[in-house]
Structure formats: structure tokens, C-alpha cells
Amino acid sequence: MNLAIETFDSPIGPVTLASDGRALVALQFGGPEDRVLLRLRERYGAAAVICEARDPQGFTSRARAYFAGELEALAGCPVDGGGTPFQRRVWAALREIPVGKTSSYVAIATRLGVPRGGRAVGLANGRNPIAIAVPCHRVIGADGSLTGYAGGIERKRWLLEHESGLVTPRLPALAFVSRPPPAWHFAGRATAPGPAPRSGSARRPPRP
Length: 208
Hints:
single chain, 208 residues, alpha/beta, Double Stranded RNA Binding Domain, Arc Repressor Mutant, subunit A, two-stranded parallel sheet, globular
């Protein structure tokens, strides 16, 4: 099995996605070493060949378009998250939640014919390997609380506000950095700050 993987920057931190040449099989926040590679190895085994690629199957372009405001950009893309039969049913139900809308764990469980299965739906939601395209962030508590999210509550809040059209300030880049950037980012000589202005050199207001 050959898997193509790419990481790109988004307003809420790095995003890593992977394709098997047929469908999107992973989309997670963080670099590949944070979570994606582990999940891919768990699913495909050590024999899988994972290599970096540029915009595999156009999925990176679609994801960038989503963050730029084309909120349906990932809605129709083929996905394959693996999982158990029940997890796949839950993930399919997630894709039916429209942009700008939310649902609850109990509501999804009821829709699937297991009205007491809210907890099981929550567990399946947490195992979703394809964020945004399989919009687990659109599932909230029955009381309207955001509840948990594998990418972090702040990211969940940002995604929901992004989809509802609210004006959301760009989150600080350092809020989602899991490790310092490589040293080569700082290669080159730093520019020294200019001299401070001398006392009395500032222009004084005219006397009355």
C-alpha cells in the first residue's frame, strides 16, 4: 500500500492529510509525527510505504479552499477512514450534517436506531481520522456545550465560527506549535535594531 502525505499551514496550525490514491484516508491537525503516522501504521501496518507528495489528488487544494472560505470544498471528496462497521455508520452520519449546523451525540444515535447509544457515538466520533471532511466538530453536547475534540476545543470553536460566518480573529500561531521550528528557519544573520533616539531629539511642540 502506497500512501501520499502532505502537511500545510492553516489559520489554526499545521494540518496533515494522507491519500491512498483513491480517497482521503487521514486529515489531522499537527505535523505527521504528531498523530497521523501512528494512526496510519496502526491501520496499514509497517509494510505501508508513506511518502511526501504535493497536493495528493487535489485534497490539499480543497482543504486550503475550505480555510479560505469555500466551506463546501471538502464535502464531496471521497473518504475512507477504515474503522468498524458502527464507526463507519457514525462517520457517514456526520457527513450529513450541513455546514453551519450542529447535531448532538444523542440525536445521531437516535438517527442510527440506537437512541441509548450516545456514548458509543461519542467514542466513534473521537476515533474519526478525517477531520473537517468528516465533520466531527459539528457534534456538540445536548446542552449546547462544545464537549471534547481531538484537535482541541479552541480549534473546534474556530471551525464552528468559521462555518457560521462569524468574524473570527486569527489565533496566535504559537498557540498550536508542538515543538520549536527547525534551526534552519533561523539561518542567516539577524538584523540589529537601530539606535535609540537621543534624549531631546524629538520634535517639541511650538510655544504658545
